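Sequence in, structure out.
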Amino acid sequence: MLKFVDTYSVNNDSKPLVFVTSDSSEAVGIVLRHFPKSSMTVVGSILHVDKAYGQASVISNGFIKVITDFYLLGECQTSILSQSGFSVLANRRRKVPNENLYFYDENSRTIRKG
């Protein structure tokens, strides 16, 4: 995926700000390290809304992160989505949801145009 973003940036003569969100803190860390000056994420507890249980403060912080991630995904000009209902729904908030849309297949580690 990182190679795709690098190539996409060069081909489009752009210096994108990469917003990354994932339920894998390892994946987020990899992207942030690859784009140290041009990437961002929302800090907070990783929470699956359908499995929210535990301390109230952790759940509260997790929900704030979920809402913020959802909002920011909808503001992206280009999206690379995984097989996730969350990211697909957030993408529908974009002004032109199918423009510059790509899907990442975890099994084959490939990206296809949406």
